[in-house]
Amino acid sequence: MRNRISENLKDAMREKNNRRIATLRLINAAIIDRDIALRGKGKDRADDEEVLDILTKMVKQREESSKIYREGNRPELEKQELEEIEIIREFLPQQLSDQEAEAAVEAAIEETSAESLRDMGKVMAILKDRHRGQLDMGKVGPMVKGRLGG
Fold it and tell me: Which of 44, 54, 86, 109 has its CA 20 to 30 A from that of 78?
């Protein structure tokens, strides 16, 4: 994953694509920050799963920012955030469709024998583990809650 990001950065520099260069540098900086934080915990560097978590968080931050810019009538800043989202998503796995997400939720509920909201944590843990980067946990949470009677 790191190599793919680095190669894309080199290509963007050759193409002089400033938005892409800036976004890829932000991704690299976030990964390095995570590496530094992990050193204190005895781990050498972030693995691909942690990089996926970083990228997912970056997309979510930009989605929130673009919404704020849209509400604040700042289309140029909203456009910038949306462009960055597209660049970051290139490195994330394909998102599951609504039907696939519902099927994943059903499978996780069945597997954990979840019956009530007390079991929601187990279901969410399975979904996060199996579908890292493919599901928006903020959207899946209410789906699980609804299925478990919440």
Answer: 54
Query: b/e per residue, 103-131, with b = 16+ CB within 10 A?
Result: ebbeebbeebebeeeebbeebbebbeeeb
* pLDDT tens digits for range 108-120: 999 998 888 888 9
**Residues 6 or more apart in contact with residue 7 via CB below 8 angstroms:** none
Class of the CATH-defined domain 2-89: mainly alpha
CB 144 within 8 A of CB 124: yes
- CATH number for the region 98-147 comes to 1.10.10
What is residue 118's DSSP assignment? G
Q: Where is 20: in which H helix or E strand?
A: helix 18-39
Where do the structural domains in the chain lie, given as residue ranges? 2-89, 98-147
